[in-house]
Amino acid sequence: MIDLSGKAAIAGVFESPRRDAPRVHPFALQMECILGALDDAGLTLKDVDGLCAASGDWAEGGSTMDVVELAEYIGIAPTYVNSTDVGGCSYILQAGQAAAAIATGLAEVVVISYAACPRWWPLSSPSFDPFVFPAGPGQYEIPYAPTLISTYGLFARRHMDLYGTTPEQLAQVAVTFREHAAKNPDARLRKPITVDDVLASPMIASPLHRLDCCVVTDGGGAVVMTSRERARDLKKPPVHVVGYGAAVARTQNSQIPDDLTTPAALSGPRAFAMAGVTPGEIDVAQIYDAFTITPMLALEDLGFCGRGESGAFVADGNLTLGGSLPTNTDGGGLSSNHPGKRGIFTLIESVRQLRGEGPGVQVPDARIALAHGLGGTFCSAATAILAR
Fold it and tell me: Could you say which of 28, 153, 200, 365 is the most buried, measured as most Cβ atoms within 10 Å of its Cβ?
């Protein structure tokens, strides 16, 4: 495995504070975020020779040519481009690939960008989603009419049946992340909630209640990466990419392993090995949380707790600011923002925590952070370890 540890750094980040952006095209949001991230780094568009973007389907304002269209829109001609789309973790995967491009001289300054406006963008647009298209592998599951949330409900129910996980433990994930969101002025939902509040909210797909599900917001973010050497001379203290791993496994729900192992079991060890650290050395984590079951499976696969032990791990307060693994310090997708694909925000909040710039709660003297995302219904995973 090529050792990319410390050869590239994140020099600038920006997250749009918008949670509603009516009639704003996602490209306009991306432009706002790209300029903000470049300003954070002390760079300009003229410095950029690499661009990564994967906006996804038409409902999110993107197409298969979105990286080309975005380059045209913002007025650059990058010599390194990446439009790899493996779902919500695409931007963590792109960060790892950008680190490789920078380390091998293919690019010097790479921007990774994402934005979407699902609150207003016409959701009835034509879709070619491989998860629902009635041909190929999908034909074996389409007759059962799976939806995204019903699939996650199945995963949660399976975890409960296998390991004794309770609805209260699932609810504690939402409660903890709302505690963090309460102090983030940009979070969509900030009012504190209790486990009882979660359990009393409407059932959406058993056992998942409404408050077990992420918010739906508009929004976007961008990350600027460059070489370790150049980052030293820029505006903000660099945050180095010291570990990276990615993996893809399956698209069909019926093909997930019986014990619910996800591709994070592959991406996580690769990232830890490259960084030369263990799960116990992570000071703060940002883990994709489309639903309360999502980070629980990741905690197990990444090695923070044993198989089937994530319910107790969460209930014991380990994800809180004073716990062993403060997680989703901005409020995560359950409370802060979720425009459709949230991987880029795990990178942004990781950088803010390592700089001491958390918009909500701040982990004291954080030095090593983990950003982890997934794609689809645990179809893909990407893990990055960042360090001061």
Answer: 153
Q: Whole-angstrom Cα distance, residue 18 to residue 31?
A: 14
Length of the chain: 388
Question: Mean pLDDT in runs of 10 for the chain (388 residues)?
Answer: 80 94 86 96 96 65 67 91 91 94 94 89 47 54 82 96 98 98 97 98 98 96 95 93 92 87 96 96 98 98 98 98 97 96 96 96 97 93 96
Q: How far apart are CA 179 and CA 156, in angstroms?
A: 23
Phi, psi (deg, nearest 5) at residue 56: 95, -145
Q: Is 307 helix (H, G, I), strand (E, B) or coil?
A: coil
Angle between helices 293-301 and 264-275 (to 10 degrees): 50
* Cβ contact 334:309 at 8 Å: no
CA trace torsion 261, 264, 267, 268 (10° rounding): -110
Surface-to-core class of residue 108, CB atoms within 10 Å of its CB (0-12 exposed, 13-18 middle, 19+ buried): middle
CB atoms within 10 A of CB 13: 27
Question: Which helix H or strand E contains 244, and what residues bound it?
Answer: strand 239-248
Q: Which of 80, 81, 45, 79 is nearest to 64 (CA)?
A: 81
